[in-house]
Task: inverse folding
């Protein structure tokens, strides 16, 4: 199984707060393979962005990461020092952030910012880095790339800036690309273009893509496999088709019922909704995090919840092995 | 036809700085928009950012004055109605429930503020009405003394809705009311808005970039592009049979949760036009797949088709009205 680029088992992120330890990510396990798109989906506060930052070793100082296994291309990153992580980040593992407005430095030209990781990691000459930048701007669909290099971020539209971000992430041929809500700040028309570009590049370059989003529409169209997160935990995972066709976990089912979808929901009719709010993740927590909002909850949901699996590769963390539709 | 609120040739320009040593330039955020919304309708307005949706909303609320053109409410020019009377009849719900509520006031006093301003009833009656309205939107009275900071995003948006409805307005202008919310909360708010509309016989102008949401809630939909309405039709026909190439591209780019369909190619290209320097002729022509030779020369007028109203040369033969 040398196709596995990233293998994470039992990842937890705890954040020290004045009220105690906040368990933002709890015992999350997954792997991402070459040429595969894995989507982490969930609502705000479910721990999906913290998972991404933990993988990139970019967590805020108050947060502490622990993992039973954290291996990148066979290398144990649990024991890797800061220097080693710095060598990998922006090189073999790269990240695309949500806000291309804030992720680019307004004081430097996009050429400078594109070339920086290449100059640093490859120790190449400026001319070589420049050629690589032009090549990648072309690849992400930006015309007259040579002139664009001298422009500043404010001279580009949001869609173009996000293309620059993608090009920057690809400068050093990464094996793993982590994209945190890469299309959320964009208009729908531009969103479709950016996702198409990401999917095409990912196939062409055989990258392992870990995409984080709250948008189930995006997940349905781009993901090979899906992890549904709720309150810091993975509640359901499996191949995208199965997750959307036969969601098992009550949260996944509830989430899908919330989205107005032509043909499935009645125009002007009642949408499904999930009552209640996400539980506090501060302090000790046991049992199913969704139980207080779940219509199928039982007293046993307060205890450790089993994980069920289907032959199609789907698994879900719930006391119910099957749910009558 | 009982048209409740209508815009007639509504235009709003802003003077913007193009650079330190350059002359100020004029940006036309909304250009010659004609719209009508009948009593009881939900008029959805969709378009990409910068198309003028929010400027239009602020004009309909009387918050900014049009550069030219008029807005009528029940046939009366809103300039003759007066700010305070207009506020009794038209109320807003804004996008961001974090910045639209005063963090230093309690929920009950936020909701009672419109009544205070209008000097309706005694202080006790105003508080009672505010608390009743909060309960109606799903916030139990124990929250009345909370400050916005103690509430979640969805609860805050409920407060904003209660504040808009406490005056019993005829029209609520919702500018991206669910865009800042999670999908499960978005569904709760949409359900609430639909219930309230029936209960209080409300008319909504519902602005959103989320086409699935607009399709769900609206009865009529206007599509805007670079400050102009390019298509207006009843919701069902707009979504099943879009006429304008821009509407078609917009609908094609919606990602519904259906795996296996892949990511659509919108064919819109990279070039979003500069609103300071809009393209000649049809503003959409540089991105249009179906453009004709004269699209860059003459701007198509809004003309009636079997579906609704559309501004596109493709339908010129069936369109009526003056040709420019």
Result:
């Amino acid at each position: 199984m040398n196709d596995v680029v990233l293998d994470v088992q039992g990842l937890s992120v705890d954040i020290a707060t004045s009220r105690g330890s906040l368990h933002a990510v709890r015992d999350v396990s997954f792997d991402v393979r070459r040429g595969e798109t894995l989507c982490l989906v969930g609502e705000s506060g479910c721990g999906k962005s913290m998972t991404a930052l933990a993988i990139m070793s970019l967590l805020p100082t108050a947060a502490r990461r622990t993992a039973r296994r954290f291996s990148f291309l066979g290398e144990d990153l649990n024991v890797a020092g800061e220097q080693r992580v710095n060598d990998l980040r922006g090189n073999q593992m790269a990240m695309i952030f949500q806000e291309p407005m804030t992720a680019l430095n307004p004081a430097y030209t996009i050429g400078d910012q594109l070339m920086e990781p290449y100059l640093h990691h490859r120790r190449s000459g400026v001319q070589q880095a420049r050629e690589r930048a032009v090549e990648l701007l072309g690849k992400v669909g930006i015309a007259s790339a040579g002139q664009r290099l001298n422009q500043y971020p404010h001279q580009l539209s949001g869609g173009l800036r996000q293309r620059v971000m993608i090009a920057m992430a690809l400068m050093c041929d990464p094996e793993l690309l982590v994209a945190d809500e890469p299309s959320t700040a964009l208009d729908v028309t531009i969103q479709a273009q950016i996702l198409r570009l990401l999917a095409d590049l990912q196939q062409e370059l055989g990258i392992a893509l870990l995409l984080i989003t709250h948008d189930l529409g995006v997940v349905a169209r781009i993901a090979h496999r899906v992890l549904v997160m709720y309150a810091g935990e993975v509640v359901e995972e499996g191949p995208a088709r199965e997750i959307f066709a036969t969601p098992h976990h009550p949260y996944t089912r509830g989430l899908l019922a919330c989205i107005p979808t032509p043909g499935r929901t009645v125009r002007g009719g009642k949408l499904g909704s999930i009552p209640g709010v996400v539980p506090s993740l501060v302090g000790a927590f046991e049992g199913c995090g969704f139980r207080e909002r779940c219509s199928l909850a039982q007293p046993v949901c307060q205890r450790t919840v089993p994980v069920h699996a289907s032959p199609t590769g789907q698994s879900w963390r719930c006391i119910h092995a099957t749910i009558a539709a | 036809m009982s048209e409740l609120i209508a815009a007639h040739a509504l235009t709003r320009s802003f003077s913007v700085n193009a650079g330190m040593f350059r002359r100020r330039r004029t940006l036309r955020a909304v250009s010659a928009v004609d719209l009508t919304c009948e009593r009881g309708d939900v008029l959805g307005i969709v378009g990409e950012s910068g198309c003028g949706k929010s400027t239009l909303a602020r004009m309909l609320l009387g918050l900014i004055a049009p550069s030219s053109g008029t807005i009528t409410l029940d046939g009366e020019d809103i300039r003759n109605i007066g700010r305070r009377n207009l506020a009794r009849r038209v109320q807003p719900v804004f996008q961001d429930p974090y910045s639209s509520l005063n963090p230093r006031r309690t929920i009950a006093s936020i909701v009672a503020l419109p009544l205070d301003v209008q000097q309706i009833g005694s202080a006790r009656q105003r508080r009672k009405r505010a608390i009743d309205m909060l309960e109606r939107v799903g916030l139990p009275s124990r929250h009345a003394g909370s400050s916005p900071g103690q509430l979640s995003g969805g609860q805050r948006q409920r407060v904003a809705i209660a504040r808009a409805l406490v005056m019993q307005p005829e029209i609520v202008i919702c500018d991206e009311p669910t865009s800042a919310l999670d999908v499960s909360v978005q569904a709760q708010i949409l359900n609430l808005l639909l219930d309230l509309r029936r209960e209080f016989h409300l008319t909504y102008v519902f602005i959103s970039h989320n086409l699935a949401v607009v399709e769900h809630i609206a009865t009529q939909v206007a599509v805007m592009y670079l400050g102009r309405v390019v298509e207006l039709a009843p919701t069902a026909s707009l979504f099943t049979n879009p006429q304008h190439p821009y509407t078609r591209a917009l609908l094609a780019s919606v990602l519904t949760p259906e795996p296996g369909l892949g990511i659509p190619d919108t064919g819109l290209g990279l070039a979003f036009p500069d609103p300071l320097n809009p393209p000649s002729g049809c503003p959409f022509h540089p991105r249009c797949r179906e453009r004709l030779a004269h699209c860059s020369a003459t701007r198509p007028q809004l003309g009636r088709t079997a579906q609704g109203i559309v501004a596109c040369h493709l339908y010129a033969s069936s369109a009526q009205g003056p040709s420019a």
Observations:
- Chain B touches chain A through 44 residues (CB under 8 Å).
